[in-house]
Amino acid sequence: MILASDPQGNGITRAYSKAAAFDAPVTPVATPIDLKAKYDAKYGAPSAGNPKVFIKYFFVNAATGEKSGEKMASAVLSNE
């Protein structure tokens, strides 16, 4: 399960609580999944004014329903 915030401004340092699902849960596969297109469709693409996205993700065992610990990350749009 992947959750992400809408694009945030430079002054925002921790917005993990704003992360929400932007697509249905995905199953790991060998081929790439275009998560950016799905994210952009829901929130719009990050911009120079709002370049930060806060991300949380975790795995769920489909057989048992057991959830892994949440992992957190952030990404910043760079024009370089």
Average residue-wise pLDDT: 92
Count of DSSP H/I helices: 1
Distance between the termini: 30 Å
- pLDDT < 50 runs, ≥5 residues: none
**How many extended strands?**
4
Rg calculated over all Cα atoms: 14 Å
Largest sheet: 4 strands, antiparallel
Give, in order, the helices and strands: EEHEE
For the largest beta sheet, what order do the strands appear in spatially? 2-1-3-4
Number of domains: 1
Assess the beta-strand content as a share of residues. Answer: 15-25%
How much helix, percentage-wise, in residues? 10-25%
- Envelope shape: globular
Structural class: alpha+beta
Give the SSE layout:
Layout: E1 2-4, E2 20-21, H1 35-43, E3 52-57, E4 71-76
Antiparallel strand pairs: 1-2, 1-3, 3-4
Task: Describe, in plain words, how this protein is organized in 3D.
The chain is an alpha+beta fold and about 80 residues long. It has one domain (about 1-75). It is built from one helix and four strands; from the N terminus they run E-E-H-E-E. A four-stranded antiparallel beta sheet has the order 2-1-3-4, with no helix packed on it. The longest helix has 9 residues, at about 35-45.
